[in-house]
Amino acid sequence: MSYLTIVVSLSTTCMAKKKLFRKGEKTGKVRLLPFVTALLGLLLVIQMVSFYKFKQDFLYIEDIAKKSTTMLDEMGMAKDYLTSFGSDLNEIRSYLLLPTTDYDFSKLGNGTLADEEEDDLTSLVFTFVEQLGAHEKNEKLYSENFEKIQKFLGGEEFLALGLSVDPTGKDTDDGALFKVTDPQSSDALFMEIFLGDNGKFDVQTYVGVIELSDSASAEEVRGEILRYSGEVIEKFRSDMTQVFVLLTELDGVFAGESVQAILAEKSLRIGSRIENIHDFRYSVDSLSKGRLMDVVVDKADFFVQVDEKNVDKADLEGGLVQIFEGVDSRTDIEILVEERAKELSQIMQDPGFLKVLEDAGFTIGEKEETADRISYPIIDEDGEILRSLYLDKRTSEVQVEVPGGGAEDLAMATHDLSVKKKTMDLPVQLASYNIEAAEGRVNILLCGKHGSNVDTIMLASFDSTKRSISLVSIPRDLYHMNRKVNSIYADFGMYEMVNRLEDITGQKIDHYVLVDMYAFRDIVDLLGGITVTLEEDLIDPTYKTCDGDKCSTLYYKAGTYEFNGTEALRVARSRHTTSDYSRAERQQIIIEALKDKAKTFGVGDAGTLFKLANTVIDATETDISPDEAIAYFFRYQNFDLDRGNVLSTANVLASEKEPVNYFTSLRIDSCAGQEGCKPQYAIYTLVPRAGDWNVIRWYVSSILND
């Protein structure tokens, strides 16, 4: 309880006692007013001592800050704390009829460390001219060196070496390339001379690189080429004689009966020979998957490699057959079918899945397998087959079949069952909602990411009037302006993410916080763990625990747990039998647990809080400064949390199938083109009901203004 809360409480008690005294109550309690006044006086003395101690601490920090800019954050927090602390003192002074004092320290310490703002236009002009100068210098150097090296390669001095080159060079994206071959070695590639667009040379030979200085001129390169060629050309010709013998032998092995047999069995073929500066290569191609690996013959050391594995030159045929036998040339669908068949088998034995079956009153019948499918019947308590799960071996898709009826994709069947639940009744008429200013509130967009895409999106609205925090989760599959909202960050960044979410929710967003999942784990650990109560069993099919080849899903029974960072992250990211809506609710439970743990922190935990704030800021992307974060922490730590608000198909969303141009497990008939309807890959998306985005804005507004 803060000092101000104590004062208000005692003041209320005192006023109540004054009323009793006026009514003529003859009790000893009428003496409480002088006692309270004396107590407040004592409290004032204590606070004044504390105040001046904090002031001395601040002045000490300020003195150090003059020597080190790393103390700026601590100065900012100390100034804000002293200013708010002084406000509390003034309230006590007013009650005691004492004059108030100006305790505004917000400007104290400013000016000595402020950096001069850099003029952006000036900086751009300077940078442009500097880069233009460097560009012109490189252009001039390139032009001069190109003319000189071209003249050398076309001159008699070079031709006397007996080598061949096209002196015009080959244009590349970043320079010019000259390939030097040897006519006496079947035009084998002897040297590559590269002139970069920065005017610098790089010379590669069949045995390595000719070392050049970074500023080597065309004349220096000419000398190195003449020296090297004169010393190495005879060895090169001798080496190429051995290499071509090996290549001829290899061509015979490829055409041999045993290699041809394994190539036919694995649906493989050997591509044409390609020469590089250091080696010769044959591609090994799958008829269904394209290039798989290369057979490499090194020019300098004469070794033969396949997929970085050396092949015994004494038994090329046997070595190649052994390697090709280990090649997986199956199609992507064949591989996917095997993986899904194995996963389905593991699911049927998984303890978590067996618990789900038990709760539903179901069992799984015997597996049935034919040439085209693998089936698992789902049987009810009366022994009737309700549905059959089957894996289509031709397409790798998992389908759901109704006995005596048709079949549909597993995801679609799940969706059809979910949409049959009662949904929220919407207003008959909806107003047109614009972006609503957050008056009396602070709205913060909370996002969690793993990799480049955001997979957790939550609007946190802090209402100072109601002393409440409302959480609204937005599903990552919400489809807005032709993309899922979770991809906006990866493509455009957080500022665009904020703009889109303002448009979607109709709420002005003041700040954003993007937390990586590993930062979330560290936050929980810095807090010393959190207490989480699971009201029902948590079965997580998205998180696998494996013992050897046997894997099962994560399974938490209902109860209260003390979670560390890793465990909390696991629960926050779990889908709970594939429901993203359940995951959003669970994430809000985690937020509540973090808030409850944070309530136990006070000023005495400043060291931990600073470490926590620095960790969060370093590991997150946010527009909230460290001192703002500390201020928000103390301001909102005792607010009530309103959780459980999730945009879903149970209230304002509908599920739709959206065609895409990449491989998915869902196929639909798309009639968007002019050539009639045709099958197309698709994804499930979420959109507002009736396609009206005001539905979402109305729903969010009703939550925040309830």
What does this structure look like?
- This protein is extended.
- The longest helix has 38 residues, at 218-255.
- It has 19 helices and 30 strands.
- The protein is an alpha+beta fold and 706 residues long.
- Strands 1, 2, 3, 4, 5 and 6 form a 6-stranded antiparallel sheet that branches.
- 42% of the residues lie in helices and 25% in strands.
- A hairpin with a 2-residue loop joins strand 18 and strand 19 (453-463).
- Helix 4 packs across helix 6.
- The relative contact order is 0.06.
- The model is unreliable at 1-40, 64-72 and 105-119 (pLDDT under 50).
- It starts with a helix and ends with a helix.
Question: What is the first-to-last residue Cα distance?
Answer: 28 Å
Helix content: 40-55%
Describe the main β-sheet briefly: 6 strands, antiparallel
Quaternary state of this entry equals single chain
**Unreliable residue stretches:** 1-40, 64-72, 105-119
**Number of β-strand runs:** 30
- Count of helix runs: 19
Shape summary: extended
Mean pLDDT over the full residue set: 78
What class, by secondary structure content? alpha+beta
Q: Approximately how much beta-strand content do the residues carry?
A: 25-35%
Radius of gyration: 37 Å
